[in-house]
Write a structure and sequence with these properties.
By secondary structure, the protein is an alpha+beta fold. The chain has a single domain (41-175), classed as 2-Layer Sandwich (60s Ribosomal Protein L30, Chain: A), CATH 3.30.1330.60. Helix content is 43%, strand content 15%. The protein contains five helices and five strands, in the order H-H-E-E-H-E-H-E-H-E. A five-stranded mixed beta sheet has the order 1-2-5-3-4. The termini are far apart. Residues 15-39 have low confidence and may be disordered.
């Protein structure tokens, strides 16, 4: 087959144009925006410590300056406790912590069944407050312990008062960077 002297430069020009268009099109592809990096685990641990959490065998337990305590046979949050729980929820969410476990406790007076139910209602009261501040309902695990794990001896009025409580636990999985 005979080649035309004019066709060779035209073919080269076509190939060069195609390559140039390919480079231009590749450069025009948009890259999806990347989410901003979440707080790393060290930052989350720092936040937990600043909020009064202490590390335990199964996570980080809250030790508030305003403890989440309840009156005898009651499951309502006191106004100062409601504010402290709301402030805590806001801080946890800002730190990227989205899941918690709420553990309700009671003193040792009354039947086991009654105390399990009362501790469940106490945990639910705190869960409602967390949800009101932005925690997803499904991200709040509720645990009712009744009088199984006292924080203080139940032999004194002060000890029983300390046992009528709710604790908030942040699980270690929440500390890993997303």
């Amino acid at each position: 087959m005979e080649t035309n002297d004019r066709s060779e430069p035209v073919s080269r020009l076509r190939a060069l144009c195609c390559a140039g268009l390919l480079v231009l099109l590749t450069g025009c592809q948009s890259v999806p925006p990347q989410p901003s990096p979440p707080a790393d685990s060290a930052k989350r641990v720092e936040t937990l410590r600043a909020l009064g959490f202490v590390e335990s065998s199964d996570g980080w337990m809250l030790s508030l300056s305003v403890p989440i305590l309840f009156e005898v046979n009651r499951d309502e949050l006191k106004p100062e406790t409601r504010k402290a729980v709301g402030d805590l929820a806001d801080s946890l969410l800002r730190a990227g912590i989205r899941r918690v476990r709420i553990e309700g406790h009671t003193d040792s007076y009354g039947s086991r069944d009654y105390n399990i139910e009362l501790s469940r209602r106490r945990a639910e009261a705190v869960a409602r407050e967390l949800a009101a501040h932005g925690f997803a309902e499904g991200a709040i695990v509720r645990q009712a312990w009744g009088f199984e794990y006292p924080a203080a001896p139940n032999e004194t009025p002060d000890g029983r008062a300390l046992n009528r409580r709710v604790t908030i636990v942040v699980l270690p999985t929440e500390l890993a960077a997303d």
